[in-house]
Amino acid sequence: MNHSRLRGLIKPMIQDGPLIKLKRWYHNDSIEEPFSIVNPIMLPVLNDSQYSWINKNASCQILGPGMILLKNYISLLGQVNIVNACQYLGMGPGGFYVPNNRYGHDLRLHMMSLGRNWDPATGYEKPCRSDGSKPPPLPNQLVHLAKAVVEEAQAHLDDDDELPSMCPDVCVVNFYDMRSRLGLHQDCDESSDSLTRGLPVVSISIGANAEFWYGHTRDENKLDKVILESGDALIFGGKSRLIFHGVRKLNSSWSTTFVHEAFHLTPGRLSLTFRQF
Ligand SMILES: O=C(O)CCC(=O)C(=O)O
Ligand SMILES: [Fe+2]
Prior knowledge:
This protein has helices at about 5-15, 75-90, 140-155, 190-195, 255-265, and strands spanning about 20, 40-45, 60-65, 65-70, 110-115, 170-175, 180-185, 200-205, 210-215, 225-230, 235, 245-250, 270-275. It is of the alpha+beta class.
């Protein structure tokens, strides 16, 4: 779908279509206000029955064994729907908050965990957040989308065994403002079964471009870098399941400016990272 067509689709819906008026919930034990990633907070409900969330002609880059980047795989309509879903869930109980790392310091981003409670300090240990809120559900459409991403990646590989299938039951949603960073880490809190089978992590990017650094070592000089743009889907599973990775620098471009204007997304980057526990 081209941009002018999407603009035409969104505008009438904002003016005439059904609107969700977002409630403002407050966490029990904090004065933190709900964190809104869009402005204004009145959102259109899109009827997506005729338009796909996926661009079938996405290009594919193999970055390593079991590590694949699908460029521009999520359609603009898919991205709008994902922003809306994250906005809706993120403003409610268990929604966006600033988490602590293992050393008790604030991470420089907003986060929420869907489907299962995960946080950077305690992993999957606790079923609820410290304010008692349960994780919001992981919407079925997002489960199907993550599975479709893995199937598309498998179709580009010679040997399917390099990348096992997975059915996500948790999705960590991060919102980075333009100065946010995510330090080098491994995603290794999932079950030993999930990790030893190399069940892939799927990461979807929306909004500003990000420098994603990765490698099989903690040595910063030996890391590779790839730019993740709005609509990209990155998969790392199989032999790359335990790569070290982090997000260093965010940048805007013409296309991200469009995304921010059309979606009313606050300047920054939304990432959704799916895993099977
Ligand atoms: O934002 C990203 O692309 C990566 C997020 C990530 O690594 C994580 O949530 O563990
Ligand atoms: Fe990660």
